[in-house]
Every structure is written in C-alpha cells, then in structure tokens.
Amino acid sequence: MSNRRTFLKAGVLGALVLAAGGALYRKVQGPPPLAPYRLDGGARTVLAAIVPAILGPMLPVEAAARAAAVTRTVDGVQGAVGTLTLSTQKEIQDLFGLLWLAPARRLLAGVPAWDEASTEQVAAFLESWRMHRFGMLRGAYAALHDLVLGAWYAQPDTWAAIGYPGPIKELS
C-alpha cells in the first residue's frame, strides 16, 4: 500500500513539475507571435543530436564529413520548416522548446543535455516515442523523422544512394 501511495505522489509531483516547467518556459519566452520560426540555438542542438540517431549509417564515417553532413541536414530542416504553415511552425517551435527545457527533456526523452547524449540514448528515446501509447508523442516522432529524412534526401549528393537520378532535365 505504501509503494502505491509513493508512486501516486511521485506521479502527481512529476506532473506538477512538468506543468511548472511549461509555465516557466512560457513566462520566459513570452507568448509567441504567429510568425515564421527560425531554429534557435537550442533547436539546432537538439537536431544535431537527433540527426545521427535517425540517419545512422547513411552519414559519413569521417568526423569532419559527418559534422558537415549533420549541419547541412539541420540547415535543410530549417528550410523545410520555413515552407510549412505558421501554425505548424508554431507547433514545431513548441516541440523544440519542450525538448530543450531540461525537466521536460529528462521526463519525456530521458536524455542528459543534448550535447552529452549518446546516439544510442537518442535512438532509444526516438524509438520510445515511435511506439508510445500516446498519439501526440507518436506524432512528434513522425514530425522529427520526416523533417530529418526530408532534409537529408533534399540534398542532391544523397540521391545516388537511393538510385534517384535527379529531376528530369526537361522539367528543371
């Protein structure tokens, strides 16, 4: 009986901490205007950790080439986000804000600071969201997955790996 009470108290406390963290984030950030979203430093750091977990062996092995490919992909995500509706950009901004906020990151993703997280830890977090019972987290996973892969395959130097010869010359 005591374990059950402890579990319930911990659950309520965790919910309160998460709510307080969200309120604090909104207080610090202020009400976001519905305007085009540019990936800030926090979002770019989150993506720099997520990109290798999603792309895995598709990334170059050599460190400098790998870092350059990750940076190009993060830049590509920015380009893709810029084409979305403002309301969708706002949702993406909220997702990155939540993933950047330390209490929410630890509770929802279970990873240390993004620049300290291993690719395996990030991959485990992504897999848990992919298979989560809550549709909102599955949707967030799908958004991250699609943004990263879309940005990756928008780069012409990645087309050969999937046998895509590029756009038809007469149409370009």
List keywords for this structure.
single chain, 172 residues, mainly alpha, 2 domains, 0% strand, Twin-arginine translocation pathway signal protein
Question: What does this entry look like structurally?
Answer:
InterPro entries: TAT_signal. This protein is mainly alpha-helical and 172 residues long. It has 2 domains: 1-31; 34-158, no CATH class. It contains 7 helices and no strands. Helix 2 (41-55) crosses helix 3. The longest helix is centred in the first third of the chain and has 28 residues, at 2-29.
What assembly state would you assign to the polypeptide chains in this entry?
A: single chain
* Mean of pLDDT: 89
Strand content: under 5%
Q: Report the biggest beta sheet as strand number plus sense, adding barrel if it closes.
A: none
User: What's the overall geometry?
Assistant: globular
Count of spatially separate domains: 2
Q: Total strand count, please?
A: 0
Order of helices and strands: HHHHHHH
Radius of gyration over C-alpha positions, nearest whole angstrom: 18 Å
Structural category is mainly alpha
In summary, what is this structure?
The chain is an all-alpha fold. It is 68% helix and 0% strand. It contains seven helices and no strands.
Q: Topology, pairings included?
A:
Elements: H1 2-29, H2 41-55, H3 63-82, H4 86-100, H5 102-109, H6 119-130, H7 135-153
